[in-house]
Amino acid sequence: MTAYRDAVRTALQTLLREDERVFFMGEDVGRYGGPYAVSKGLLEEFGEDRVRDTPLCESTFVGAGIGAAIGGMRPIVEVMTVNFSLLALDQIVNNAAVMRHMSGGQFEVPIAVRMATGGGKQIAAQHSHSLENWYAHVPGIKVLAPATVQDAHDMLLAAVEDPDPVFVFEHQMLYGVEGELDTEATPPSPWKAIVRRPGTDVSLIAYGGSMHKALDAAEELAKEGVSAEVVDLRSLRPLDKETILESVRRTHRAVVIDEAWKTGSLASEISAILAEDAFYDLDAPVERVCTVEVPIPYAKHLEEAAIPQVEGIVRAAKRSMGSG
Amino acid sequence: MKLDISRDHALALLRDMIRIRRLEEKSAELYAKQKIRGFLHLYIGEEAVGVGAMHALRKDDNIVATYREHGQALVRGIPAGEIMAEMYGKANGCSGGRGGSMHLFSAERRFYGGHAIVGGGLPIAVGLALADKMKGESRVTACFFGDGATDEGEFHESLNLAALWKLPVLFLCENNKYAMGTALERHVADAEIADNPRAYGVPADSVNGMDVVAVNRSVHNEAELVRETSEPRFLELRTYRFRAHSMYDAELYRTKEEVEKHKKHDPIEGFQNRLLAEGLIEQADIDAIEADAAKEIADAVEFAEQGEWEPIEDITRHVYARDLS
Q1: Is B257 helix (H, G, I), strand (E, B) or coil?
Q2: Cα end-to-end distance, chain A, whole Å
Q3: Which of A67, A101, A238 sits opposite B125 (nearest CB)?
Q4: Angle at CA of residue A180, ends A176 and A183, nearest 5°
Q5: Distance CA A114, CA A298 (A)
Q6: How close does chain B come to A310, measured CA to CA in Å?
Q7: What is the pLDDT of residues A102-153, one digit of tens each?
């Protein structure tokens, strides 16, 4: 069994070993070993040239990553958390996402940016955001959300190999989670959703940290005779509409789980896709389980109440079944 | 003081300044005729900066510029026709009509834009220099930006990072005394712009940006020092924009008298007169340059007029390496 953080580190090591264009930079990724202990030992193995501790200047070190990517390197940039990535939004939205287009296809930006996301650790409003949907809104960038140990490894490899800017969101509650890691197997396409648990009555559509809650909810529902299917979105841009629609056309019911606030969320986007393309297949209104519209509170009971939990998913699935 | 410059070099500098002036005048005219739309920022008055600097850099050096970049692009070798076609929005423009006036690009000439978020090009320049340093290249990344950019956090962050990591960036501040419509003394606490880089340990100097020879010499010296040391340096080029900030600007923030006063120091007229007075060139040389420039610009307009519009079916091109839609 391998921990999620170790799977990310294994991928980083592979990338740094196999491609001299690859380098890794971010705040405290070197001597500190990474704020989530992801990059422990990398500085010692690869040296200060390729594992770079940056000053606290998100906009400029992300921008420098973009410049280095245009200049022929394959930078992996860690922005400690999505909360700090807001300081780099100018570089991401105004440069990384548009450079290829604005230059008529002359320049590409093969940068991979990793960051932690989500709440659940009682670190309050400024450290608990889930803003993946902000990124998934923007054409020109791609967004991945690995929920499993295997994906944490495989998706980073795919992000670095990709010729476009790829943003990888790692839910902060997952770093300690353990799972199987096979570094030899051919990974499935990172841009496709995967059915993690097949079912026939209702589709639970989730990603990242919430995906595990959806699996737990499916287990609960099974005890009550409800067969729930769990769809792990994996890629948030592009969204794999086919797999989502294929699942809902079979189950005729959908619950979308998203740790973002409901208003303007990816859950909203998926609901709209279902309304557009699966309207006549639905036997019940689409349910959304999202974060309560409040900055994430510090107090444990309030934080738990704010973000999606297993019970809430179970309730939503039952409502969808007409028994909630 | 006599100019220490060869006739050929003098003619080359003069020629490029005149080419830019005529391109810009024609652009303004075509804007009035609605051939060019969107934002259009003219370089008129600032030609000595672009020409002096671009002539001092090597072909292999990287250039990052601002939204007022027609001059640098032209001197870098992007054909006037491709620049004009880009401003028309035609498919034969240097960015395929996707960028427009503010986003001129040329991969083969290492011309990395055309950046229209003030200060946003600086981190890109730092990254290009980082890539070169890691690959062991000896090239310089020259990064142009205005005095307004010095207000931005990215300016200070980029100076710090370039100094900390010893990256070969030449920071070129085109100080035209206005951040759009806000005068220098109204947008910075310390109007001595070169104090900023010095605070980060980046050697900095200032030069009269209306004097093409002085600019050329200073940029040459600075660029070679960056190349030699592989460390950043900073040069402030003191210049003045004769035209409005963009075509939408009513210029309420400065007086006509102020503009007229600066126009007396026209970089082209001043240089021409000096060259004539010193006998380095004759009126016939100027006439020949003007005739060539007139033809070049007329041909450029023709090239743009003849260009095709990109088919709307292709609209999602250039978003990703492979179309995802």
Answers
A1: helix
A2: 38
A3: A67
A4: 110
A5: 25
A6: 34
A7: 999 999 999 999 999 999 999 999 999 999 999 999 999 999 999 999 999 9
Q: Over the range B258-277, which residues count as b (16 or more CB within 10 Å of their CB) and which as e?
A: ebeebeeebbbeebbebbee
Distances (CA, A) of A300 to A123, A130, A309, A311, B287: 10, 18, 13, 16, 80
Residue B205's beta-bridge partner residues? B235
The two tokens of residue A261 are: 């606030």
Collapsing DSSP to helix, strand or coil, B63 comes out as strand
At the second CATH level, the architecture of B7-303 is: 3-Layer(aba) Sandwich (3.40)
Single out the catalytic residue among A18, A27, A48, A58: A58
DSSP 8-state assignment for residue B106: B
Of A64, A70, A238, the CB nearest to B324: A238
Query: What are the tokens at B318?
Result: 């250039």
A216-252: pLDDT as tens digits: 999 999 999 999 999 999 999 999 999 999 999 999 9
Residue A18 corresponds to which tokens in the numbers above? 């196999």
Given a contact cutoff of 8 angstroms between Cβ atoms, the answer to whether A174 and A209 are in contact is yes
Task: Give the start-to-end residue ranges of the domains of chain B.
Answer: 7-303
Active site (annotated) includes residue A301: no
A70 and B317 within 8 Å at the Cβ level: the answer is: no
Residue A207 zone, left/alpha/beta (φ > 0; ψ -120 to 50; rest) = beta
CA distance B56 to chain A (A): 22
pLDDT one-digit tens code per residue, B44-65: 999 999 999 999 999 999 999 9
**The Cα angle at residue B54 between residues B48 and B59, in degrees rounded to 5:** 165
Catalytic annotation, pick one of A44, A45, A108, A127: A127
pLDDT at A110: 98
For residue A218, the 8-state DSSP code is H
State the number of CA atoms in the 13 A half-sphere of B115 facing the CB.
28
Residues in chain A within 8 Å Cβ distance of B154: 59-60, 63, 90
Within 10 A of A182 (CB to CB), how many other CB atoms are there?
Answer: 12
* B216 touches B53 (CB < 8 A): yes
Query: Residue A19, Cβ neighbours under 10 Å: how many?
Result: 13
Residue A76 to residue A138: CA distance in whole angstroms: 20
Do A67 and B324 count as a contact with CB atoms less than 8 A apart? Answer: no
> Which strands sit side by side in the sheet containing A194-197, from one edge to the other?
A194-197, A228-232, A202-206, A254-261, A287-291
Please tell me the predicted confidence (pLDDT) of residue A324.
63
**Using CA atoms, how far apart are residues A216 and A163, in angstroms rounded to an integer?**
36
Q: Which residue has the tokens 């670095």?
A: A160
Domains contained in chain A, CATH given: 2-179 (3.40.50.970), 194-320 (3.40.50.920)
Q: What is the pLDDT of residues B130-167, one digit of tens each?
A: 999 999 999 999 999 999 999 999 999 999 999 999 99
**Is A100 in Cβ contact with B321 (below 8 Å)?**
yes
Average pLDDT over residues A20-31: 97
Which residues are registered as beta bridge partners of A114?
A78, A168
Selection from A110, A147, A148, A115 nearest residue A132 by Cα: A115
Q: How many CA atoms lie within 13 A of A207 on its CB side?
A: 32
Residue type for A299, please? A
